Amino acid sequence: MKRAIFQKKVAIITGASGGIGAAIAITLAKKGVNLVLTSRNQNQLLKLTEILQKYEINTLAIPTDITQKDQVHQLMEETIKYFGKVDILIANAGQYLKRPILHLKANAIEESMAVNFYGNFHCIHEVLPIMLKQKTGHIIVLSAIDGKKGIPANAAFVASKFALTGFVEVLRQEMKGKNIHISTIFPRRVDTQMIAKHKIPKIHPDKVAKAIIKAIKKKKREILVPYWRLKIFFILNTLSCRLGDRLVRWLNLEGKETGKK
Question: Which residues contact 176 (CB under 8 A, 6 or more apart)?
Answer without folding.
Answer: none
